[in-house]
Design brief:
By secondary structure, this protein is of the alpha+beta class. It has four domains: 120 residues, Gnk2 domain, C-X8-C-X2-C motif (Killer Toxin P4, Chain A); 102 residues, Killer Toxin P4, Chain A, CATH 3.30.430.20; 89 residues, Phosphorylase Kinase, domain 1 (2-Layer Sandwich), CATH 3.30.200; 192 residues, Transferase(Phosphotransferase), domain 1 (Orthogonal Bundle), CATH 1.10.510.10. It has 16 helices and 24 strands.
């Protein structure tokens, strides 16, 4: 109790200090001194200042004729915990500083303080959510970033639900404290302007929260300031903590119900009647609760089964309404592509942040496992050559993944299209090869987990605006122990043309499985041809045997994509082909590690061993030999942000 009082006093002192300036925004448009616009602005500011003692801490006003270009809209919003005196002081400071210091003669202004926000402009912005926005973070980084982000995500999820559920006209404001450690407490706050709807409040807050990881991940404090909402957290108290009111004592027994017998014992027929009635009521209530609980449990079983392994992961939980708003209710106009387990849409949060929303098919049983796997893995991974998971959504049967938006689609979109191949010159292709190698090396050796991707292919390589590659789609990935070298499975998943022989035939997979797939990717990037559909002009060779023949005969430039004839580096092409052929050796022991590959790509002083004849696989519908092994019916997946038409996993393998 004493600690709570001390915290309350401390936060009271903080909130009653002079207003703390954070940021401001001014439009380029100006008004003429002594004009009608300035007269109306003076009336707006005067009215805002004089109404700053209003108990709700929110006030808006309009001055000017409806058809006039000098009509002005203004409002202020004070932080939900501050006293009326602090609110008055902040609004008074804001009205003066905007016109005298920060934004003289500007037609549109927003200014943020810790204690309040003030805004005015010519366009009507009431009940409209729009920019500008501002974000800021503390420079100090927490010691355990993952656990910190996990706690923060849980707190914000609760706060948004509380803020957006406020009654009409009430403050859309919520705060929460949680212990991060014995010596560190995390304080968090969210607030919306009361003029917007509950739906828009929810959308604004999640948009602001979703932006925080890109600017402030792992920082001890950060804030996102929008014109319609605010989110903030810190390890220091920055708002007034109001203690909960004491629990009132139980009311005295009503007179006349209790009598006393000659031996001093309490006895009353009224009490017995009340006890009997109460027991009946309690029994009925308990039975109703049990029935309701069992009914809800059955209805939510699908969702709980899907979520049980991921609800504690270190990423944000989005609600369905927010993602519907961001994607225009998953409209076809926002569709980016379709993969094996769902459709991917482009979305935009309020602050302008673009996202890719992967909505898994509700009818796909495999989608549940892929969903859990992808969230649990990607939530722990951060690398410039891996696509970043922002969060997920589980509501009813909806299973949705939210990624960073990667604007240049996937590698296969350019690589296998005759009209787009020219956009990938050799410089870009060489950069893409190196970036993929670094991303896979991170998965294999540099992350805190040892991860085998198992579905590395061109459609799972996304390209950002600078054409930097990002490895995506971890639905089939597996985690290895630190000292584990390989594992086996009775259910083969992946994509035809990228599987190494030991995996396709015996179900054995290891880090060298990804190396093999990477080698296939190198051959595809050099040639511009897709391995699974490649056919030699003169023979029935596949891409692997075709590449080997030209390497063996010293005519390796014949393999090169014809669109690169004027932009390639002979030495780089030769080195990449050399590495690619090493990666597709039949024996996994003869393939290099990703660490060696990255070194070979970046240092010409490293000598490369001569590759041997690679493993050749031909897929023919006319072959009659018995298949080595019946494979699973899994389809390969693609994040599709966007992806090409998805390739199916092979069902039979015939070795040559």
């Amino acid at each position: 109790m004493i600690t709570l009082v001390l915290l309350s006093l401390l936060s009271s002192i903080i909130s009653e200090a002079a207003p703390t300036y954070q940021s401001h925004y001014c439009s380029d448009a100006t008004f003429t001194p002594n004009s009608t616009y300035q007269s109306n602005l003076n009336l707006v500011l005067s009215s805002l200042s004089s109404n700053s003692s209003i108990e709700s801490g929110f006030y808006n006003i309009t001055v000017g004729q409806n058809s006039s270009s000098n009509k002005i809209y203004g409002l202020f919003l004070c932080r939900g915990d501050v006293t009326t005196e602090v609110c008055q002081d902040c609004v008074a400071t804001a009205t003066k500083s905007t016109v005298q210091q920060y934004c003289p003669r500007r037609r549109e202004v927003v200014i943020w303080y810790d204690e309040c926000m003030l805004r005015y402009s010519k366009p009507n912005f009431f009940i409209i959510m729009d920019d500008p926005s501002f974000s800021k973070s503390d420079n100090t980084t927490v010691a355990e970033v993952d656990r910190f982000n996990k706690l923060l995500a849980t707190m914000f999820h609760d706060l948004v639900a509380r803020a957006q559920s406020a009654q009409l006209g009430a403050k859309m404001f919520a705060t929460k404290e949680a212990n991060f450690s014995s010596s560190l407490t995390l304080y968090s706050l969210v607030q919306c302007t009361p003029d917007i709807s509950s739906f828009d409040c929810n959308k604004c807050l999640w948009g602001a929260i979703a932006y925080l990881p890109s600017c402030c991940s792992g920082k001890q404090g950060a804030m996102g300031l929008y014109t319609s909402c605010t989110v903030r957290y810190d390890v220091h108290p920055f708002y007034r903590i109001i203690p909960s009111p004491p629990v009132p004592p139980p009311p005295p027994s009503p007179p006349g119900l209790v009598t006393r017998t000659h031996n001093g014992k309490r006895q009353s027929s009224s009490v017995r009647i009340i006890a009997i009635v109460t027991s009946i009521v309690v029994s009925v209530v308990l039975l109703t609760m049990v029935y309701s609980f069992r009914r809800r449990k059955l209805k939510k079983k699908y969702k709980e089964d899907a979520a049980k392994e991921i609800t504690a992961e270190e990423c944000l939980i989005f609600d369905l309404a927010t993602l519907k708003a961001a994607t225009n209710n998953f409209s076809d106009e926002n569709k980016l592509g379709k993969g094996g387990f769902g459709v991917v849409y482009k979305g935009t949060f309020l602050g302008g942040q673009e996202i890719a929303v992967k909505r898994l098919s509700s009818s796909s049983k495999q989608g549940v496992e892929e969903f859990k796997n992808e969230v649990s893995l990607l939530a722990k991974l951060q690398h410039r050559n891996l696509v970043r998971l922002l969060g997920f959504c589980l509501e009813g049967k909806e299973k949705i993944l939210v990624y960073e938006y990667v604007p240049n689609k996937s590698l296969d979109y350019f690589l296998f299209d005759p009209n787009k191949q020219r956009l990938l010159d050799w410089s870009n292709r060489y950069k893409i090869i190196g970036g993929i190698a670094r991303g896979i090396l991170y998965l294999h050796e540099d992350s805190r987990l040892r991860i085998i991707h198992r579905d590395l292919k061109a459609s799972n390589i996304l390209l950002d605006k600078e054409m930097n590659p990002k490895v995506s789609d971890f639905g089939m990935a597996r985690i290895f122990e630190i000292d584990q070298t390989q594992d086996n499975t009775g259910k083969i998943v992946g994509t035809y043309g990228y599987m190494p022989p030991e995996y396709a035939i015996r179900g054995l997979y290891s880090m060298k499985s990804d190396v093999y797939s990477f080698g296939i990717l190198i051959l595809e990037i050099i040639s511009g041809k897709k391995n699974s559909s490649f056919s030699s002009p003169s023979t029935s060779e596949n891409l692997l045997s075709y590449a080997w023949k030209h390497w063996r005969d010293g005519t390796f430039l014949e393999l090169l994509d014809p669109t690169l004839r004027d932009s390639y580096s002979r030495d780089e092409v030769k080195r990449c082909l050399h590495i690619g052929l090493q990666c597709i050796q039949e024996s996994s022991a003869e393939r290099p590690t990703m660490a060696s590959i990255v070194l070979m790509l970046n240092s010409y002083s490293v000598s490369l061993p001569s590759p041997q004849r690679p493993a050749f696989f031909l897929h023919s519908r006319t072959e009659t030999s018995m298949p080595i092994k019946e494979l699973g019916s899994d389809q390969s997946t693609s994040n599709g942000i966007p992806s090409s038409v998805n390739e199916a996993s092979i069902t039979e393998v015939y070795p040559r």
